[in-house]
Write a structure and sequence with these properties.
The structure is a single chain. The N terminus is likely disordered. The radius of gyration is 20 Å and the shape is flat. The termini are far apart. The protein is built from 10 helices and no strands. The chain is 73% helix and 0% strand.
Length: 221
């Protein structure tokens, strides 16, 4: 089988997501900026289309926090946590670039339980599907004269989340049928058309993120 050349292995990206999530509790700006830069660099190399969207969202968040809502603590409660999680969300966009079979093979490579491997693969593979469904809900709400309003967050939450949950149930039925059709429950040995191996890039990215997060935690204690 031909080996597919990834810039970063899927498991490494998942590890970086888990490690960078600890920065949510680190008040040290230097560690956050370093982790954000690393995440953006990986996204630029592996998911260039998503990179420009992430930069746009990041700039909008910074503008809202430091210009518009700088003296309104109520709105900062919603925007600052989202900004703190940007490195994790950016890496999630990178994970969504892998196919479900690539993610499944990567999870099996480190001997994750089959149920957990399927859950990880389906979750990240269908992040783009989630965006598409959210767009459908937004367009439907717009036709009915509804929309998101920052002064009414609870009402806006109802308008978008409830229909999204219903659509998610419909998608889950489709995914379940597809999984059973492809024989996912078979106990035979599974193979991958494009297997991927770890490289020096995975080691370098992992060590760099560990150093960033470790340095931020060290500054606290």
């Amino acid at each position: 089988m031909k080996e597919k050349k990834f810039f970063i292995h899927p498991i490494t990206v998942l590890l970086l997501m888990i490690v960078s999530s600890f920065l949510f509790f680190v008040p040290f700006k230097g560690a956050y900026i370093a982790a954000l830069s690393l995440s953006l660099g990986i996204e630029f190399l592996m998911a260039r289309k998503s990179f420009f969207k992430s930069v746009s969202v990041l700039l909008i968040l910074i503008f809202f926090i430091h210009v518009i809502f700088v003296n309104i603590g109520f709105f900062l409660i919603f925007f600052i946590p989202f900004l703190k999680l940007m490195p994790v969300l950016i890496l999630a966009e990178v994970m969504a670039e892998f196919t479900s079979s690539e993610l499944l093979w990567a999870c099996r490579k480190i001997h994750l339980p089959e149920t957990l491997a399927i859950s990880v693969a389906v979750f990240f593979r269908f992040l783009p599907e989630f965006k598409h469904r959210l767009k459908e809900v937004r367009e439907g709400a717009k036709v009915r004269g509804y929309g998101f309003h920052p002064l009414h967050p609870v009402r806006s939450f109802e308008i978008f989340v409830v229909p999204l949950l219903y659509k998610g149930l419909l998608v889950s039925d489709t995914i379940s049928c597809a999984i059973w059709t492809k024989g996912i429950e078979s106990t035979c040995e599974k193979t991958e058309l494009h297997p991927a191996n770890f490289s020096y890039r995975d080691v370098a990215a992992s060590m760099l993120m560990f150093c960033i997060v470790g340095g931020g935690l060290w500054k606290i204690f």
